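To fix ideas, we reproduce below one chain and its tokenised fold.
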Amino acid sequence: MAALVLPRDIRRHLLSVYGFARFVDDVGDEGRVRDPLRMLDDVDADLDLLYTGRLPRLPAVRALTPVVETRAVPAEPFHRLVEANRRDQTVGRYGTFKDLLAYCELSANPVGHIVLHVFGLATAGRMALSDRVCTALQIVEHCQDVGEDHARGRVYLPEEDLRRFGCGERDLAGETTPARLRDVVALQTTRAERLLDEGEPLVSSMGGVARVAVAGYVAGGRATVAALRRAGHDVVGRAVRPHRVRLLSTWLGVLARGTRGGNGRGRL
């Protein structure tokens, strides 16, 4: 929904970025290529072509040309997204919450950095706040997709938390969510909410459509946290998604707080 408020040129740039991210995810997740690691190497090589002024071969990378040329987006966040999907091919579980945060540094936070560059608002302070928001969004997505991820051989709930609450493989592979697994999901949900609290000042540091759009991203995370709680953290075998009305009201609330909190001209 946040993209709907954006000017056409910014929306077009962001669509190319999200198209690239989706393409890289599909390479790793959907089994559409015979050798995902080799394909990810090809994506990295294509990014190198793009950033040295040569023509990329892959359409998803070639589509990034306008945003790279006009918004001066650095190569690093794109390469980190590729590395996240490369890690998905070799790492299926994360021992600690700290380990999971390190994964989010590759899988989620680069998207926020790219978005800030597209808006022309990429400062160290804003990127640090963006990291909190993007990590929170990744965590709540992991909470929503526990069963689906496990079916693909991946568990994004920290193993230390699973052990703490006594969860085993049968809990993750079942058709329902036992109470002990709900407790693990509840812990991750609380952590995500805390990260959103820490990152929300990003909204007040911006003005105009950037503030409106980023408020939408924060609101999406908050509305999903609320949906998970309303569902009692029962996430296996069902889709837990925020209602559109709740999402809109949360968006307006985040935007109102951001408007009161700053004039959008401060440099973080």
Remarks:
- The chain has two domains: 1-75, 91-268.
- Residues 1-75 form one domain.
- DSSP finds 15 helices and no strands in the chain.
